[in-house]
Write a structure and sequence with these properties.
This protein is of the alpha/beta class. It is built from eleven helices and 26 strands. It has helices spanning 77-102, 129-136, 150-159, 186-192, 262-275, 331-334, 338-363, 413-416, 442-450, 469-472, 537-553; strands at 2-7, 12-13, 20-21, 26-30, 51-53, 67-69, 105-111, 139-141, 144-145, 196-202, 220-224, 247-248, 251-252, 282-287, 308-309, 312-316, 370-376, 383-384, 395-396, 420-423, 431-433, 437-438, 483-489, 493-499, 502-508, 518-521.
Length: 563
């Protein structure tokens, strides 16, 4: 009997420790002519009995050895190729099941306008026990950068590219589409790699249904397509063309689930997704609306701040009767400023919701096989006019003070440096990483952890992010030096670029020239209070050249997806 080698591949180490990439060797046994003599007339057309075995051998490499043996009539080429096709399908199915079990679930949680100091492990005044546990048990990025505002950060996370590559350098105030159809996204990449893909929450990358998340790689979606929504009515700004986008799979939900807090709805939907039966690993993208304005907390969390005692402005009426104020740590009661106290309640509500999601993973036995990524989308919002939503509140300086200069929409550290961490029990050693990273790095990092190859892009912008796996898994303590590019183009235009400890910043209504830049050494001056550009002109010139190269890659004009 002749044995032919039809395909062959090797087991190779993957980028994640303990995980290997492997492919299959298929052997097909072809009998000699004398083993199966010609059929007699009217004889049975039944093929020789097939026999196959699948051997699964688990080593430290988690490699799988699969072998298929099938006697095939060489004279009957149709039967031979049918047998071969059948064998490949059977083995591919078995291999797919084994590989699916080896790939982790991916949970990406994004908060909205949560500043550096609006989380417990950065600020003891804030009560976020669930986020603190996840962060301290995982890798915490102390220099974790995002873009200065909502939509650009989501583009960076979702595409692994700086948003300027798609012409997105500020908020899509008109809710126009953001990405051309066919753009490789985190969702489409994982879906092609065998993941079930879910979005639960805020999309904000095109508010018309024809530009919704299901067109960019998500199997299922739930939430709102536009920006912030009312906490209880789930509507975007009243009178806006996209006021009502509360949906499931791009179909409006009748009644918009009015009356339930949006944070609780998202947590409940995420729990439902986690507890559903999955034949594949899942990718769940969970972008919350909190703690973005409008701030509205009632019932078990906090009473409305409009019910303040006129004789005691630092108290709400019937404060002692509200269960919330007997919070376990007593931290919210200690905050005397009523606006900041309200934000503390919003942040803890968010933390409580995240705790419910994590418990669902634990209760279903999926926690050990789920990687959790967390970030805010930008720095804290400093003030709010309070005229965009029904019962909206005017707020001034309602966030916790941060140790940096700038807030949301700034390219100074306070607007772009936010909490960020990765948690994977038993796989990622807990520690703090001081190397600067950017949210564009999340796509290549997640792809590496999931074992998905990044495609070579020829008809769209190249990836800007890098794979953080070597530093996340402790294979190295450093990453190759590279620059972090930060832009926000709402007058005045705001530009910044960091490389190493140096950072240039420019606020201008024109393209920055080399003499327009401020220069800061963040190692000595993290608050960006001392401009040393005049003392280091060579550094400014070198960083300006890097900026010019990045700016040349950006697209001008809006993106309108092709049909």
């Amino acid at each position: 009997m002749e044995v032919r080698l039809l395909s062959r591949a090797l087991v190779r180490p993957g980028s994640t420790p303990g995980r290997f990439r492997f492919s299959l060797t298929v052997f097909v046994a072809l009998p000699q002519d004398d083993q199966f003599p010609p059929r007699k007339p009217h004889s049975s057309l039944r093929s020789p009995r097939r026999r196959f075995t699948i051997e699964r051998t688990i080593h430290r490499s988690r490699a799988y050895a699969l072998r298929f043996f099938s006697p095939i009539q060489p004279r009957n080429h149709i039967v031979k190729w049918l047998h071969l096709a059948w064998s490949v399908l059977v083995i591919a199915a078995a291999l797919g099941q084994a590989n699916a079990a080896d790939r982790p679930n991916i949970l990406v949680i994004l908060s909205d306008d949560q500043g550096w100091a609006d989380i417990g492990y950065h600020n003891p005044k804030v009560y976020t026990p669930n986020l603190d546990r996840l962060a301290t048990a995982g890798v915490r990025f102390t220099r974790h950068y995002v873009m200065p505002q909502c939509t650009p950060t989501r583009v960076a996370l979702f595409t692994g590219r700086y948003p300027g590559r798609f012409g997105i350098t500020g908020l899509q105030a008109t809710n126009d589409p953001v990405l051309p159809y066919g753009t490789v996204t985190l969702a489409s990449l994982l879906k092609a790699h065998g993941y079930e893909t879910y979005l639960v929450g805020k999309w904000h990358m095109g508010s018309a249904f024809e530009y919704g998340p299901n067109h960019y790689g998500f199997d299922h979606s739930y939430g709102a397509l536009a920006g912030a929504v009312g906490a209880y009515d789930h509507r975007y700004r009243p009178g806006n063309p996209f006021e009502i986008t509360w949906h499931r799979d791009l179909r409006i939900i009748p009644g918009y689930e009015n009356g339930t807090h949006v944070t609780d709805l998202l947590a409940a939907e995420a729990v439902r997704v986690i507890k559903a039966r999955h034949d594949k690993p899942f990718f769940l993208y969970l972008p919350f609306f909190a703690p973005h304005t409008p701030l509205d907390e009632r019932g078990p969390f906090v009473d409305t701040p409009t019910q303040r005692d006129p004789e005691h402005p630092d108290r709400w009426l019937n404060e002692d009767a509200i269960p919330w104020f007997h919070d376990p740590a007593g931290k919210i009661q200690q905050e005397k400023d009523p606006e900041r106290r309200l934000l503390l309640a919003v942040v803890y509500h968010l933390d409580d919701a995240i705790g419910r999601v994590v418990r669902a993973l634990e209760e279903t036995g999926q926690r050990e096989n789920t990687v959790i990524f967390f970030s805010s989308d930008n720095g804290p919002q400093h003030s709010w006019n309070g005229n965009a939503y029904p019962d909206d509140l005017k707020l001034t300086d309602f966030n916790q003070p941060i140790p940096f200069r700038g807030v949301k929409c700034d390219v100074y550290e306070g607007g772009v440096r936010v909490p960020g961490f990765i948690n994977w029990p038993g796989k990622i050693p807990p520690r703090a990483i001081d190397t600067p990273v950017h949210i564009v790095d999340w796509l290549p990092t997640i792809a590496s952890i999931a074992g998905a190859e990044l495609p070579v892009l020829t008809d769209q912008p190249a990836f800007d992010g890098i794979d953080l796996s070597p530093i996340v898994f402790g294979q190295t303590d450093t990453l190759p030096e590279r620059e972090i590019y930060l832009v926000h183009r709402t007058p005045p235009d705001k530009w910044a670029l960091r490389c190493g400890d140096w950072k240039i910043v420019c606020y201008t209504r024109k393209q920055p020239a080399v003499d327009d830049w401020e220069l800061y050494n963040l190692a000595d001056d993290p608050k960006e209070s001392r401009n040393v550009a005049s003392a280091y002109p060579d550094v400014v010139a070198a960083l300006h050249e890097l900026f010019v190269r990045h700016r040349a890659k950006d697209k001008t004009g809006r993106n309108i997806p092709s049909p």
